[in-house]
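Journal club prep, notes for RB
We'll compare a predicted complex against what the paper describes. Inputs for the DLL case:
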Amino acid sequence: MDYFQKEIETMSADQKFVLQSERFVKMVKYVYENQKPYRAKMDAIKLRPSDIKSIKDIWKLPYTLKSDLREAYPFGMMARPRRDLVRLHASSATTGKLTVAGYTMRDIDVWAECAARSLVMAGADEESIVHVSYGYGLFTGGLGMHYGGEKLGAVVVPASAGNTQKQIQLLTDFGADIICCTPSYIIYLTEEIERQGLKPGVDIKLKGGCFGAETWTEEMRADIERRLGICACDIYGLSEIAGPGVACDCRYKTGMHFQDDHFYPEIVDVDTLEPLGCGKSGELVITTLTKEGMPLIRYRTRDIASLNDDPCPCGRTTIKLNKITGRSDDMLIIRGVNVFPSQIESVLLKNASVSPHYHINVDRVHNLDTMEIVVELSPEITPDRVSDIENIRQKLSADMASALSVSAKITLVSPGTVERSEGKSKRITDRRKI
Ligand code: DLL
């Protein structure tokens, strides 16, 4: 199966422009009439829905911020009365209140369609068994991929997160060909599969997976693909917009195909908020084009990424989202230098002596920022002498300093000692904020 909805996924640029413009003009009017906080923003700059003629006018509109959602907590951003909503999801903010999202039946349906498109991109079809190890609950990962799998007509195994031994038993007994979980969890599962001597392709029948909800690097992808013999697709989403499936890689991995008939992406400069063209890295801003329950116009996601419009051999014509490199609020400023955890991960994964399990500790000692990277030695490394470990440490230190332009203390620990995560991993402890 090549596509889930071919006509939409391979639409020409002209058709796309017409469709996006039609939906966008309607959306602005709908939001103005039904979402008070945004109406106030438009009124404040004397902008009327009739001033918006096509998607090209998007720059005229104000941004919606995470803080707008928090101020309207819990239901102030809903554009429909409660009787029209059928589901609530929420994601925990590091700074207190939950960010809540409400969905109508149609919103759930559109989201399931996008998740189904994503599963097909990862290699699924109606014959597939889709094993979902994302958590089911307020987090959108589990239910999002679940409904996507059902929409596709596949068999869904709602394993949810946790209980790794049971997950492996289900994978071997049911023979799932597609798995959905976080990248850090698939690494953990892979280790366990290897430890039990199970053979990918023989005992484990996986062919592909949709891995997302946290940043991960190309090096991590290569590691997963090599060890499991699968096609590892990056999948992006956020509960405020729709959960997993807003964008997803196809097997060519030329960037995540952004479902731009439903969600319109922009990249803006983090400081000046000037819109940036393809290839330039900045904050991802998303406008929903069809959402009913909680539509959002120019929502600043805080995610840092870039877009590309290069043709993809798969034939899909959507704009593509390059890998998320971090969140603007995840960015560490160490002695004045900007550092993203993904840069650290890249360096670690290029070094065969260590494994991709790490934790970053940041502190301030005598007014000076310090950064420690605690990383596990690779299980294959059995150093005979203390000097072997010291050599690995020195090499990593030097690689890190040249990649980050700032020095870090490297602490090597034994395999299996860095805490594993079943959902989103928490890789940073910043004591400067405690
Ligand atoms: O994480 C939805 C999701 C579930 C996406 C499963 C993919 C797979 P939230 O909990 O609302 O929703 O968190 C959204 O997670 O703004 C990003 O910072 C981050 N994120 C999501 N997908 C990716 C990805 C889900 N592929 C926040 N790469 C987003 C990097 C991601 N970060």
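Talking point for the session: The pocket of DLL is lined by residues 91, 134, 139-141, 212-215, 234-239, 243-244, 301, 303, 324, 327 (CB under 6 Å).
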